[in-house]
Amino acid sequence: MEGAYKEVYEKIVLNTDRFNLGDEETWRQIYEPFVPGHSPRVQVTRDHRYGPAERNVLDVYFSLEISETGSPVLAFFHGGGFFSGDKQWSEKYWGNIGNYFAQQGIIVVIANHQLVPYNKNEVSSREAERTTIKYPAGADDVQLVREWIYNNISSPQFGNGSVDKVVLFGHSSGGAHVAMNLYAAGDPERTVTRPDVFPPVAGVIYLSVPFWYDRTRPIRQKILQRYYGSDAENVWGPRSALGLFKNLPNDSAALDAIKLPTYVGTVKWEVKETFDGAMAFLNAYRERSQPAGTNAIFHVLDKHNHLSNVLSIGTHDDAQAKMLRDFIRTCTSSGPNTGHKFSFKI
């Protein structure tokens, strides 16, 4: 087994931080043989509707052996460059996340969200011109998932979860949608009816998330034009995850680092756009967080690239999975909004 992983790591080193359209299928096929099949100890219920859009459906995974009332809940939002991805990407993905964490006694919600239409062979398309998938549609989907969890997850049908122990987990563009939801108050044109974070969030995980965008990349230009209506930085910049965070009101509950612990994860071979954005977000977080000067939990995963980190969850290559599991446990062990003591071995 170690020899097989060595070959994978060698391929990662060979490709370094290069990550192009279509590479996600290559890396999935490389990692999929290492992922076990669905566990008979885990119950999965599929395609629960959480909103009106076609893609507003989610799956729930929970343990059949660990039946504690008030179990922690992990809500996962997949990546895909804003224009691709699915909660059932393949037979094993993203069930790898559901199966792994459910066996740790954590209920897992894996949701689809709306996608920006994209055709790599066209500069524009009629579908894109007609689309209503505009900012902040992805963030609104995250909100609807949070509300569905709040209204349903405590039922035995979904594993007896606790609404006060919900951790949000977004990979790549999925994490950008999570951030644009949590930091909605940074946009004066969006309606935020409550000063607190509601429904409750016990913690947030950002894994290889583009908090900011490199508009010089042709693929990014198309996405920005379609999602934000323009690729001009003065249009999308204030509405990016980083821009929204910087513009949060000083009394925003999302700035409270004690009540909303934040994990920012990246990798040794990270996409430059994503790594640069993460550094900018970490600096902004330290500048704006309360108590003053608080840092987010930050981790660079050795040996991995932009996608292999999340693909590795559920395999014997469990460095990333263990870090996330420990963060979730720490966020949800103290009860709602009481503060947390973090201890990680790096």
TrEMBL record:
One Pfam family from the record: BD-FAE
Coiled coil: none
One example of a Gene Ontology biological process annotation: monocarboxylic acid biosynthetic process
InterPro entries cross-referenced by the UniProt entry: AB_hydrolase_fold (IPR029058), BD-FAE-like_dom (IPR049492), GDXG_lipolytic_enzyme (IPR050300)
BD-FAE-like domain location: 58-180
GO terms of molecular function: hydrolase activity
Keywords: Hydrolase
The organism's place on the tree of life at top rank: Eukaryota
Identification of the protein by name: BD-FAE-like domain-containing protein
Organism (species): Penicillium solitum
